[in-house]
Write a structure and sequence with these properties.
Layout (H helix, E strand, L loop, with lengths): L1 E2 L10 H14 L7 H14 L5 E2 L7 E3 L4 H6 L6 E6 L15 E6 L2 H7 L15 H4 L11 E7 L1 H6 L8 H4 L2 E5 L4 H9 L1 E6 L2 H10 L3 E5 L7 H8 L10 E3 H5 L5 H15 L3 H19 L3
Parallel strand pairs: 1-2, 3-4, 4-5, 6-7, 6-8, 8-9, 9-10
Helix pairs in contact: 8-9
Amino acid sequence: MKVYYWRPILSRSPDFVQMHTKYLINTSNIFTKNFGDEIGKFVLSSVIGSENFYWSSPSRAQLFPIGSVAENILSAKSTITANLWGIGFRSSDFNMNSVQREYNVIALRGSLSVENLKISGNNNVLGDPALLISKFYKSNYTEQKEAIDFLLIQHFQLMQRLPKNFLIHDSNKLTFKIMFVHQSLSTIIDSIISSKIVFSSALHPLIVADAYGIPGVRISSSEDKIDSFKFKDYLSVYPCKTNWPTITLNEILNRDFDIKKIEDKSREHLIKIKQSIPLIQSKLLDSLISWYSLNKDS
């Protein structure tokens, strides 16, 4: 089975080069992974077996799990049907006239992505497959290990806005453990599970925190108007209107926030979504198994 997921090392766009340069300056690491896509691979391996799929370029892939890649996938010419499982769009600006290939919806990330595709009916399977991680990943964390008060997981884009001395100075001054979305799946998830609160500018660490019942806080900025679409899309699957508390990068740098209020609001969010998550997980899992049983020999 040919599957596509984002591989940063293969991207050479101007945005990637700028992002990579800043990242390299701050961390001395060359990032080759992305947390959300690593989750996609892990969940697929858990459900259908790692030996039954391999990475392929977008134009040749059959299955597209997890990520805000719908625009790129559907607007690229290909004779191969794109099977969408839990992916979504980056914004509401998608024009159906730009679709260049046939596609099949197995599941979509949220109702905003459904609206973009102009799909009718109430039987759509909705949810981000990252929620399934808590069903399959067995954590190495134990309560005997040292717990983390505040975990800050940085998206590639956030790295571009951080001062260079943030990692050296502020991470010692503040009680944050700093992590990056290029780090290993197990390292990030174990840290999330052991945290009191997870702060993230990336979507998937917050979804994983939701899956394990860990309070999450979204780092937002005035620059992420488009980026906020995917957060709203994911949250739209829950029957009660809900959101993570939000905080700006400057508020973190200046330690200008009330941690008690943030934690209380985050726990309110977890209470609202708790009963919905098992049903979303079940529908996502069933949709993939059903599709794969019919297409595994194709």
